[in-house]
Every structure is written in structure tokens, then in C-alpha cells.
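Q: Hi! First time doing this. I have a protein sequence and I read that you can turn it into a structure. Is that right? Here it is:
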Amino acid sequence: MTTKVFDKTLGKFDVVGIDPLGEKFDPNVHDAIFTIPVHDTIEHNHIGQVIQTGWKIGDRVLRAAKVGIVKKQEE
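A: Yes, that's right. Below is the predicted 3D structure, encoded as C-alpha cells:
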């Protein structure tokens, strides 16, 4: 309930959360913390795990989402 009220209040000021699981990695919006070697359903250079969601106001990033990225293993 508190989260709904908080999100609704922030939404009035055009502040939205960033939860990028499965999206292509973008260094302007995401902060890569670690890499994941292989994943069954998520492609190379896409986000496989979200550690901390981020926040945006309009197009400006307030806090980048901290994520783990799926990378192909080098042979």
C-alpha cells in the first residue's frame, strides 16, 4: 500500500521507476555490477538480473539501475 501511494505521488512529478530485466544493456541508464556467463532465455548483452531498480524524471536518469549482464563465454 505504501509503495502504491509513493509511486502515485512520484508519478505526478513525472518520476518513474526503471526495472530493466531482459532489456538490452544501455550504459546511460544501467550500471553493470557483474556479468552472468550463460542464461537460458536472455540474450547476450541483455540484463539478466536487477540488483537495484533505478529512477528517471522525464528523460533524465536520477539513479541508474544496478544490474548483472549476460555475456557469452570467450573460447
